[in-house]
Amino acid sequence: CFLVDFSGSMVGLKIELAIQLAMAFSESCDLLDIPHEVLGFTTDYGAHFRCPSKSPAGVGYSRWEPLRHYILKTFEQKFSQTKHAYANALGLGLDDNADGEAVLWAARRLVQRQEQELKLIVLSDGYPNVAGGKDSAMRAHLKGAVQRCMTAGIETIGLGIMSPAVADFYPDHVVINNLDDLVSGGYRKLAEIFRQSSH
Fold it and tell me: Coil, helix or strand for 118?
């Protein structure tokens, strides 16, 4: 599963790099007959609710905004059937990002599969962030989500899009700063994943 960060900080070159990489991965998976899906995540700032001055039992909220999760390509679809979804994705409203919840959402979808090897590749440029929430809680939750994935047997990899922040959350990670890195870093990691899958 390829999970793409569609948060506001990904605007411009970052989201273009991420989508190029996701498309290249998806097309390559199809050529090698590797089942896969492509997902995206952000939040809906325009629909956020106001936190009461005193939350129940004195517990504060770590997220105030509704989640927005996208399915760009399902396991059943071919890459050629979903090219329009990537083009449309460039026009999505980019808001905030609750990475841990998106990682767990993708993981829940993965564990329903019958394949022996499950891999989750997250393309992101930074730290979890939801306006009005608690960044420290969001970051701790993401670390816990990645650990839960690995404990469940899901190999989880972070691809940092023009940011090294993924190193704080994903033990296995690669940073991609430009198109050259897209080839030397992103594609090399893809080849490594494919070699492991073919064993």
Answer: strand
CA-based end-to-end distance of the chain:
19
| Residue 155 CA to its chain's centroid (Å) | 14
In tens digits, the chain (199 residues) has pLDDT values of 999 999 888 888 888 888 888 898 899 899 989 999 999 999 887 655 555 545 555 555 677 788 889 999 999 999 999 988 877 777 666 688 999 999 999 999 999 999 989 999 999 998 998 765 677 888 999 999 999 999 999 999 999 999 999 999 999 998 888 766 666 666 666 667 666 655 5
Tokens 């608690």 belong to: 134
Q: Measuring CA to CA, how many Å separate 197 from each of 32, 50, 107, 186, 191?
A: 10, 46, 18, 17, 10
Q: With b meaning 16 or more CB within 10 Å and e meaning fewer, what string describes 107-134? A: bebbeeeeeeebbbbbbbbbbbbbeebb
Residue 161, φ and ψ in degrees, nearest 5: -90, 100
Backbone CA torsion sign across 112, 95, 185, 183: positive
Closest to 168 (Cα-Cα) out of 125, 119, 110: 125
SS3 content of the chain, % helix, strand, coil (to 5): 45, 20, 35
Helices 135-151 and 99-110 meet at what angle, rounded to 10?
20
